[in-house]
Amino acid sequence: MKQTYFRTKDFSKKLISLKLKTKQEQIEAVLICPERIYSFKNPCEEVQLAAIRTDHHSLRFIKNPTRRAQKEAIYLRACNIEYIKNPGKEIQLFAVSCDPYVIMLRSDFCEEAQVLAVKKNPQLIIEIVNPCEEAQLTAVMQDMKWYKHIKNPTENVQMLVKLSV
Question: Per DSSP, what are the bridge partners of residue 13?
Answer without folding.
Answer: 7
